[in-house]
Amino acid sequence: xxxxxxxxxxxxxxxxxxxxxxxxxxxxxxxxxxxxxxxxxxxxxxxxxxxxxxxxxxxxxxxxxxxxxxxxxxxxxxxxxxxxxxxxxxxxxxxxxxxxxxxxxxxxxxxxxxxxxxxxxxxxxxxxxxxxxxxxxxxxxxxxxxxxxxxxxxxxxxxxxxxxxxxxxxxxxxxxxxxxxxxxxxxxxxxxxxxxxxxxxxxxxxxxxxxxxxxxxxxxxxxxxxxxxxxxxxxxxxxxx
Length: 241
Prior knowledge:
The chain is built from ten helices and seven strands. By secondary structure, it is of the alpha/beta class.
């Protein structure tokens, strides 16, 4: 926390202004200056604060599931097709196994895990290609976490790309193909799943930039720090870190 992870995600979806860099999807550069641009480009963002930014708590499940896709449920003159929304909501409730008495249930009365599934379902209704999950299992119980993990793996198997931001190292190591580690607003290394261990990740997560170093190209920084990467076995150097 505090490394700049959420700020990067918000810049990617246009919620915050980016001062430099480009965004590419499927190898093509895209212009994203606000969240509407991100949605149009097929990028969905699941905020770490789902109750504040991801849900309308006083609305029912069906309304929340349709929240990011109202355009496709509306006529040219703005009338909402309520029947189509209900059918889409029923499909997502069944597919995601959202535990709710009905799709008319108010979202604030669902458990944390099921609220998170509703947020996920909102973006699946939109059929986004890229999903950014910021702390996807925060505030939910162990059983619900396993369901979320299973769901994330199914989404990637179905061809979705997921950027997951997490403070829980075990879930990062369990789910990730690549891990971008940040410290104080900069990327300190990008690791493959085979390279990543708790010791290695924590080394780069606490790798502060020396004073006077200035800006360093990300690729050069990653290459230089790989050479300084600590041993995979803590016992090889007497357990010193």
